[in-house]
C-alpha cells in the first residue's frame, strides 16, 4: 500500500466524517489519532479494544518519557492519551506531561497542554498546583493568545488556595482594551466566585462595571455571576432590576450587532438568561414585577418567527410571567402561548408545553381544564417522556374526585415501565395520593397492593411503614377501622392463595404483619396459619421475611388454632442456623403453649395501646450501684469519651495519661459480673476490645442503653407528652354509585360538541373524570360535593404512641418530646390584647415609610384585630429589638415573636423574614442562637376564614442537619392564627451562607392540594460561638489542625490600639474569644457549635492585618475569613 | 445546567466527551453505554429529549453523528437543543475550510461555547476567533 493511500485512509474516520465518508479524499499529514480511531472502529469485541488501547498506552508511555520527544510530537501524544481516557482507560502517567506541555509549548501545542490538563484532572487534584506558575506567566505574557488560554483554563479549573496569587492579574484584565480578554476575565472571576466567594468579595463593584461594559459579550458573561448571586440573595440586587430590563429591551429590540443573531433571532441565549434573572427578582415582589411587565409583553410579541429558538425564549418568558407578581393581561397571553405549545404537532414543543403547564397548574389549576383533551391524548402518546410529563401534570392536579382515574393511569404506566428510577418516583407518588384522597376502603387496599407488588423491594421503605402505621392507628370510627382491616386481611388471604411466590419480599412482610395483627377479625385462623406456613416453605422467601412470618404466627397461635402446623414449624426452625429465626421459633413454641403469657406479651387487637417499655432500664439500677460501689467509673457517652481523648492528646504530651481510666473501668465491670450481664457491661463500656468476644455469646439486645446515661450518670427519662387529640367530624364515604352520578353531571361542564364519534366520547368521559373538581370552587359546591373533598385517611394527631410493629420500626429513632409550649402559645394568643397600643403606635409611625409588599401590610392589620403579644417578656424583646430600618415588618415581627416557644425566652431572635405567601397561608421564619445549636422557627399564618389541617413542612439543606423538634412535621393552622414549627440546626458542612430549603404542602377545604417552596438563608456566623482556651491549649491545638487559610485584612483604625480595636470588632460581630494579645500579634479562638474549633492568629504587618486561620474542619477557615472580611468592611 | 456532552457515531462509539461535573472514569463509561441505549434506538418522530434518572438527555442527529447532552431538570431543553445546532454550525464553518478534523480543535471550540455547564458564548465569529488566531500563529 502506498504512502499516499495509507495517509488518506487514516484521515478518514477522524472526528466528523466518522464512518460515512469513507470514499472521500480528505488528506491528513500525520494523523496517528486517525489510525487509532480507525483501529477501534474496526474492532468487534470489547476484549480486542482493551488489548489495542493497552498497546497504544504502552507506546505513548514510552514516547512521552523519552527526552527526545519534541513538543509537537508531545501534542500528538497528548491527544491520543485524551482519546484513550475518553474510552475509559486511565492514562495517569501522562498527566504530568500535560502540565509540562502547557508550560513549554507554544500556540496550539500549549493550548492542547491546557486542554489535556482540564480533561484529565479534577479541581482537587494535587498536580494542579504545578500549573499555577505557568498560568501566572501566561497571564503576564504580551501575547494575547497566551493570555486568553490562561484565562480559559482558569475559568475551568483552578486550585482554590492559589487564587490570591493570580487574582490581581485577573482583575487587571477587566480593564483590557480587547473585549475577549475582558470577557474571559469576567468568566474567570465567575469561577472564583463559585469555588471561593470570599476571595472576590471586594470586587463586587467591578462586576457592576462588567455589566455596564460597552461590549455585549462582556456584559453577557457578567450575567452568569449575577444569576448566581441573585439566586443566593435576591433582596440584595433589586436595584438592578431596571438595568436588566433595559438590557433585555435592547436585546429584544435588535440593538446588538448582527453577529449575535442566531437564525435572525437576536442573542437568544442571552435573552433566556435575562428572563431567568428577572423571574427571580420579581418573585413575590410587586414593585419589581411592575418594572418588567412592559418588556415581557414585548418579548411575547416579538417572538413571532416560527423557529425552535423563539419557542425556547417564549417558554422562559411564560415561566417568568407565572413566577413574578401576576398581571392578568400577561397571564392571559402566556396561557395562550402555552396552548399553542401543547397543541403543536411538533413533539418537542408539545413536551415543552406540558412542562410549562406542569409548572403553571400550581398557580392556576383551571388552565389544565382548558387543555384537557390534549392532555388526554398525551396520556396515550407513544413517547414515554410525553406520558411521563403528563402524569407529573396530573399528579399536581389530583383531588378527591379525580384520584381514582389518575392513579389508575399512573399504575398503568408503572406496569409497563422498566426504569427503576421512574418506578421508585412514581410509586411514591401513587402512595401519597392514595393515602390523601382514597375514596373508599377497597380502593385504598387494592391500590396499595398494586403499589407494593409493582414497587417491590425498590421502593422507599417509608411507604410500607407509613401504610402499616395508618392501619394500626386507625381513623375516626371504630367500625370503619374494623372494615378496613378486615378487607385488608381478606384480600391478602386471597393473594396468598394465589401465587405468593411472585410477590416481592417487602409486600410479603406487610402481608404477614397485617395477617398477624388482624386475622382475628375473621374466622378460620387455621387457614391463615397454613398459608403463612406455606410462605416459610418457599425457596424465594428471604430470612428477613421468614422472621416476619414467624412473628405473625406467634400472634395467631393462641386458642388451639393450627396446633399441628405450629409444631411442625417449630421443629423445622427451632434448630435453624439463622439465629434470628431460631429465636423466633423458640418464642413461637413457648407462647403457643402458654396462653396466659401470650395474652400478656401480645394482646390481641391492641395496636393502639402504647407498649410499656421500661426505657430507663430501672431493673438494672441495683447492678449499676453495686458496680459503682465496687469502684467502677461512671458511664460516659461515646462523644464525651472522644472529647476527653482529644483534649488529653492536645493538652498534655505525657505518655501515660491517655484514656486510662476508661479502659480500667470497663475491665473492672467485666471482671466482677456474671456472664449473663456481659452484654450490658459491654454496652456501658462501649469500646473496650477485650469484652467484645465474650459479649457476643449472649443474645440479649439492649438498644437505647446509651441514652439513659449522661455525664452525671443516670438521667431521668422525660415522659412523652400526649398531644391533645382533636375531634374531627368523620367524613362520610361516598358510595361508588354516587360518584358515578357526579362524574356524569360534571360531564356537562366540559365544552363538548353534542354529537361525537365513539372514541371521542370515551376520551371526553375520561376528561370529565380526570378534570372534575378543577373548575371554580362554586361549581363543586353546587354539586354538593364539597364535603367529599376532605381527606379521607386523615391521621389522628397522636403522640409517639403506636402498635408493636410501628414501634419496632421507630424504635431506633430517639424518642421525641413534643413541645407543650407550642400548644400553650398557639392557644393563648387570641385572648389578649395588652400590647395593641404599642402595635398601633408603631403602625402609625411606620405607615408613611411603608414600602413593603401590600400583602404584608394586610397581614399586619389582620393580626392587630385578631391577636397581639401575650406575654410581657415578648414585648420587651420586641421593643428592645433594634430597628435600623423602620418598616411595617417590625410590627408583624412583634406579633409573631409572641408565638416563639417559651423555652426561647431570654434569647434574642433574628428578624422575622417572610418566606413565601399565597392567598391563604403566609410562611415566615426566624432563627435563634442557642449554646450548642441554632433553632429555626417557622411561623405559618393562616389568613383565610377556614382552618387548614395537615400542613406538611419538609425542610432540607445541603449544609445543615435539620431536625424537627416539635414531634411531628404535620401542623394545623386555625383560621387567622399562627402555627409554629421548630427545628434544630447543626452544621454538616461549613459554607459562607447556609440555606434551608423547604416545601410546605397543604390543602384548604374544598380545594386541590397546594404546595409552596421557600428557602431560608442564614450566615455561618450564627453557628459560631466563642471558644475559651488558654494560650498553652491554643498552642497545642494549633499544631493539630490541618486546614488553614491566610489573608490580609484591612485594619479598623491606624492608632496605637489598632490591633485591639480590630479584634474587638471581630469579637463583637462574630462572637469570637480573644485569647491573648502580645505586642503586634493576637490569638483568637472560636468554635462551630459544640465541637468544631477554629483558631485565628493575627499579626500587624505593614499597616494591614495578616490573618491565619486553622481548623480541623475543611472549609471552615475559608468561610470564617469571608465573614471577618465582611465584618471589618462594614464597620 | 449542562452536565456533560457526548459525540457518538452510529455504532455508539464515543468520539468526544466532555464532563462538566466530576465523575470517575468507570462511571463515565457506564453512563455512556446507558446513553447510547437510550438515544440511538429512538425514531425520528420521537421527542428529542429523554428522561434519564433524575435528569434529561437532549440529543440531535446529523447523518452518522449523534450529539447527546445531559441537562438538569431546570434547564430549558429546547434552548439546549438549538445550542447543539449552533455548535454544529460553528464546526461546519471551521472544518469546511481546513479539511482536517481533530478532536483537540473541536474541544477548543467547545470550550469557547460551554464552560462549567453554562453557555458562555454563542456568537459564531467570537467562538471561532481564538482558534483562528492559533492557526495563524502556527502558519506564520
Automatic annotation (TrEMBL), chain A:
The keyword Protein transport applies. Residues 679-698, 720-767, 786-819 are annotated as: Disordered. One of its GO terms (cellular component) is AP-4 adaptor complex. The keyword NADP does not apply. This is AP-4 complex subunit epsilon. Adaptor protein complex 4 (AP-4) is a heterotetramer composed of two large adaptins, a medium adaptin and a small adaptin. Belongs to the adaptor complexes large subunit family. It comes from the Eukaryota. It is found in: Endomembrane system. It holds the Pfam family AP4E_app_platf. Residues 804-819 have a biased composition (Polar residues).
From TrEMBL, chain B:
Residues 1-137 form the AP complex mu/sigma subunit domain. It comes from Liparis tanakae (Tanaka's snailfish). Component of the adaptor protein complex 4 (AP-4). Adaptor protein complexes are vesicle coat components involved both in vesicle formation and cargo selection. They control the vesicular transport of proteins in different trafficking pathways. AP-4 forms a non clathrin-associated coat on vesicles departing the trans-Golgi network (TGN) and may be involved in the targeting of proteins from the trans-Golgi network (TGN) to the endosomal-lysosomal system. This is AP complex subunit sigma. The gene is AP4S1. Belongs to the adaptor complexes small subunit family. InterPro entries: AP_complex_ssu, AP_mu_sigma_su, Longin-like_dom_sf. It is found in: Endomembrane system. The lineage of its organism: Eukaryota, Metazoa, Chordata, Craniata, Vertebrata. Keywords: Membrane, Protein transport, Transport.
Amino acid at each position: 500500500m502506498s504512502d499516499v493511500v495509507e495517509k488518506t485512509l487514516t484521515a478518514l474516520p477522524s472526528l466528523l466524517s466518522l464512518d460515512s465518508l469513507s470514499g472521500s479524499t480528505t488528506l491528513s499529514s500525520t494523523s496517528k489519532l486517525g489510525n487509532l480511531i480507525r483501529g477501534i472502529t474496526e474492532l468487534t469485541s470489547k476484549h480486542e479494544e482493551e488489548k489495542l488501547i493497552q498497546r497504544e498506552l504502552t507506546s505513548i508511555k514510552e514516547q512521552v518519557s523519552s527526552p527526545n520527544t519534541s513538543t509537537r510530537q508531545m501534542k500528538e501524544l497528548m491527544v491520543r492519551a485524551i482519546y484513550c481516557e475518553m474510552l475509559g482507560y486511565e492514562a495517569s502517567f501522562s498527566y504530568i506531561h500535560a502540565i509540562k506541555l502547557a508550560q513549554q509549548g507554544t500556540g496550539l501545542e500549549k493550548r492542547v497542554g491546557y486542554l489535556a490538563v482540564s480533561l484529565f484532572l479534577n479541581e482537587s487534584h494535587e498536580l494542579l498546583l504545578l500549573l499555577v506558575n505557568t498560568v501566572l506567566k501566561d497571564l503576564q505574557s504580551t501575547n494575547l493568545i497566551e493570555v486568553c488560554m490562561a484565562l480559559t483554563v482558569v475559568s475551568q479549573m483552578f486550585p482554590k488556595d492559589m487564587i490570591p496569587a493570580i487574582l490581581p492579574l485577573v482583575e487587571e484584565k477587566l480593564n483590557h482594551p480587547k473585549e475577549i480578554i475582558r470577557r474571559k476575565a469576567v468568566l474567570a472571576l465567575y469561577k472564583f466566585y463559585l469555588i471561593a466567594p470570599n476571595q472576590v468579595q471586594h470586587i463586587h463593584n467591578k462586576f457592576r462595571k462588567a455589566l455596564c461594559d460597552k461590549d455585549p459579550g462582556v456584559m453577557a458573561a457578567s450575567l452568569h455571576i449575577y444569576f448566581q448571586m441573585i439566586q443566593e440573595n435576591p433582596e440584595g440586587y433589586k436595584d438592578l432590576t431596571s438595568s436588566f430590563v433595559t438590557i433585555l429591551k435592547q436585546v429584544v429590540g435588535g440593538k446588538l450587532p448582527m453577529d449575535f443573531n442566531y437564525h435572525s433571532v437576536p442573542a437568544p441565549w442571552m435573552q433566556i438568561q435575562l428572563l431567568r434573572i428577572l423571574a427571580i427578582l420579581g418573585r413575590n415582589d410587586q414593585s419589581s414585577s411592575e418594572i418588567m411587565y412592559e418588556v415581557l409583553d414585548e418579548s411575547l410579541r416579538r417572538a413571532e418567527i416560527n423557529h425552535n429558538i423563539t419557542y425556547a425564549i417564549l417558554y422562559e418568558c411564560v415561566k417568568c410571567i407565572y413566577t413574578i407578581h401576576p398581571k392578568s393581561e400577561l397571564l392571559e397571553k402566556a396561557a395562550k402561548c402555552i396552548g399553542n405549545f401543547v397543541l403543536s404537532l411538533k413533539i418537542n414543543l408539545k413536551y415543552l408545553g406540558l412542562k410549562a403547564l406542569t409548572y403553571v397548574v400550581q398557580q392556576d389549576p383551571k388552565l389544565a381544564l382548558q387543555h384537557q383533551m390534549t392532555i388526554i391524548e398525551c396520556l396515550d402518546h407513544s413517547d414515554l417522556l410525553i406520558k411521563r410529563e403528563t402524569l407529573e401534570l396530573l399528579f399536581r392536579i389530583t383531588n378527591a374526585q379525580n384520584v381514582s382515574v389518575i392513579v389508575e393511569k399512573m399504575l398503568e404506566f408503572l406496569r409497563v415501565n422498566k426504569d427503576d428510577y421512574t418506578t421508585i418516583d412514581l410509586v411514591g407518588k401513587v402512595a401519597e395520593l392514595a393515602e390523601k384522597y382514597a375514596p373508599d376502603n377497597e380502593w385504598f387496599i387494592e391500590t396499595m397492593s398494586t403499589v407494593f407488588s409493582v414497587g417491590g423491594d425498590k421502593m422507599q421503605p417509608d411507604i410500607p411503614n407509613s401504610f402499616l402505621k395508618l392501619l394500626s392507628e386507625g381513623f375516626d370510627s371504630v367500625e370503619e377501622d374494623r372494615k378496613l382491616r378486615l378487607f385488608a386481611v381478606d384480600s391478602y388471604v386471597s393473594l396468598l392463595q394465589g401465587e405468593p411466590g411472585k410477590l416481592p419480599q417487602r409486600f410479603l412482610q406487610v402481608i404477614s404483619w397485617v395477617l398477624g395483627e388482624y386475622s382475628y377479625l375473621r374466622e378460620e385462623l387455621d387457614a391463615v396459619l397454613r398459608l403463612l406456613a406455606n410462605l416459610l416453605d418457599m425457596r424465594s422467601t428471604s430470612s428477613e421475611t421468614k422472621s416476619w412470618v414467624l412473628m405473625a404466627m406467634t400472634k395467631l397461635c393462641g386458642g388451639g388454632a393450627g396446633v399441628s402446623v405450629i409444631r411442625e414449624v417449630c421443629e423445622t426452625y427451632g434448630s435453624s442456623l439463622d439465629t434470628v429465626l431460631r429465636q423466633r421459633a423458640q418464642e413461637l413454641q413457648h407462647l403457643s403453649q402458654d396462653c396466659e403469657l401470650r395474652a400478656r406479651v401480645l394482646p390481641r387487637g391492641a395496636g393502639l395501646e402504647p407498649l410499656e417499655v421500661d426505657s430507663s432500664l430501672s431493673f438494672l439500677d441495683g447492678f449499676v450501684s453495686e458496680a459503682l460501689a465496687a469502684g467502677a467509673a461512671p458511664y460516659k457517652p461515646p462523644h464525651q469519651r472522644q472529647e476527653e481523648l482529644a483534649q488529653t492528646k492536645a493538652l498534655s504530651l505525657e505518655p501515660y495519661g491517655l484514656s486510662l481510666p476508661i479502659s480500667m473501668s470497663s475491665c473492672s465491670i467485666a471482671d466482677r459480673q456474671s456472664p449473663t450481664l456481659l452484654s450490658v457491661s459491654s454496652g456501658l463500656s462501649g469500646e473496650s476490645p477485650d469484652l467484645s468476644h465474650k459479649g457476643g455469646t449472649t443474645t440479649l439486645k439492649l438498644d437505647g442503653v446509651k441514652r439513659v446515661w449522661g455525664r452525671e450518670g443516670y438521667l431521668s427519662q422525660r415522659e412523652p407528652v400526649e398531644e391533645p387529640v382533636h375531634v374531627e367530624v368523620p367524613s362520610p364515604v361516598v358510595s361508588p354509585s354516587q360518584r358515578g352520578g357526579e362524574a356524569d353531571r360534571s360531564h356537562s361542564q366540559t365544552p363538548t360538541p353534542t354529537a361525537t364519534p365513539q372514541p371521542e366520547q370515551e376520551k371526553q368521559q375520561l376528561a370529565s373524570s380526570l378534570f372534575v373538581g378543577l373548575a371554580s370552587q362554586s361549581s363543586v359546591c353546587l354539586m354538593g360535593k364539597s364535603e367529599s373533598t376532605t381527606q379521607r385517611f386523615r391521621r389522628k394527631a397522636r403522640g409517639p404512641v403506636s402498635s408493636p410493629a410501628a414501634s419496632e420500626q421507630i424504635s431506633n429513632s430517639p424518642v421525641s418530646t413534643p413541645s407543650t409550649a407550642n400548644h400553650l402559645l398557639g392557644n393563648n394568643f387570641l385572648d389578649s390584647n395588652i400590647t395593641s397600643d404599642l402595635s398601633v403606635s408603631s403602625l402609625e409611625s411606620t405607615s408613611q415609610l411603608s414600602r413593603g409588599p401590600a400583602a404584608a401590610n394586610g397581614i399586619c392589620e389582620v393580626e392587630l384585630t385578631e391577636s397581639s403579644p401575650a406575654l410581657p417578656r415578648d414585648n420587651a424583646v420586641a421593643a428592645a429589638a433594634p430597628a435600623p430600618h423602620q418598616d411595617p415588618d417590625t410590627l408583624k415581627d412583634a406579633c409573631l415573636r409572641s408565638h416563639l416557644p417559651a423555652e426561647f425566652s431570654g434569647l434574642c431572635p433574628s428578624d422575622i423574614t417572610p418566606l413565601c405567601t399565597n392567598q391563604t397561608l403566609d410562611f415566615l421564619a426566624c432563627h435563634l442562637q442557642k449554646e450548642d445549636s441554632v433553632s429555626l422557627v417557622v411561623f405559618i399564618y393562616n389568613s383565610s376564614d377556614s382552618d387548614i389541617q395537615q400542613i406538611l413542612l419538609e425542610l432540607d439543606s445541603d449544609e445543615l442537619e435539620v431536625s424537627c423538634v416539635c414531634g411531628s412535621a404535620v401542623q394545623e393552622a386555625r383560621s387567622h392564627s399562627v402555627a409554629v414549627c421548630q427545628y434544630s440546626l447543626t452544621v454538616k458542612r461549613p459554607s459562607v451562607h447556609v440555606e434551608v430549603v423547604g416545601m410546605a404542602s397543604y390543602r384548604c377545604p374544598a380545594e386541590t392540594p397546594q404546595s409552596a417552596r421557600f428557602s431560608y438563608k442564614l450566615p455561618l456566623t450564627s453557628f459560631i460561638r466563642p471558644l475559651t482556651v488558654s494560650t498553652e491549649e491554643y498552642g497545642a491545638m494549633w499544631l493539630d489542625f490541618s486546614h488553614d487559610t491566610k489573608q490580609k485584612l484591612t485594619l479598623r483604625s491606624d492608632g496605637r490600639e489598632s490591633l485591639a480595636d480590630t479584634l474587638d470588632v471581630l469579637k463583637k460581630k462574630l462572637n469570637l474569644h480573644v485569647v491573648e494579645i502580645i505586642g503586634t500579634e493576637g490569638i483568637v479562638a472560636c468554635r462551630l457549635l459544640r465541637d468544631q474549633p477554629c483558631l485565628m492568629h493575627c499579626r500587624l504587618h505593614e499597616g494591614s492585618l495578616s490573618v491565619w486561620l486553622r481548623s480541623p474542619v475543611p472549609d471552615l477557615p475559608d468561610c470564617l475569613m469571608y465573614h471577618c472580611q465582611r465584618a471589618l468592611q462594614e464597620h | 445546567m449542562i452536565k456533560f456532552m457526548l459525540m457518538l457515531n452510529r455504532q455508539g462509539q464515543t468520539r468526544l466527551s466532555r464532563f462538566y461535573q466530576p465523575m470517575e472514569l468507570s462511571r463515565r463509561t457506564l453512563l455512556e453505554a446507558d446513553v447510547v441505549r437510550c438515544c440511538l434506538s429512538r425514531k425520528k418522530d420521537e421527542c428529542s429529549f429523554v428522561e434519564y434518572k433524575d435528569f434529561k438527555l437532549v440529543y440531535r442527529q446529523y447523518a452518522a453523528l449523534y450529539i447527546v447532552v445531559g441537562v438538569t431538570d431546570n434547564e430549558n431543553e429546547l434552548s439546549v437543543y438549538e445550542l447543539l445546532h449552533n455548535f454544529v454550525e460553528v464546526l461546519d464553518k471551521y472544518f469546511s475550510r481546513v479539511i482536517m478534523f481533530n478532536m483537540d480543535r473541536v474541544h477548543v471550540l467547545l470550550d469557547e461555547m460551554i464552560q462549567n455547564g453554562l453557555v458562555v458564548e454563542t456568537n459564531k465569529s467570537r467562538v471561532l476567533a481564538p482558534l483562528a488566531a492559533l492557526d495563524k500563529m502556527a502558519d506564520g
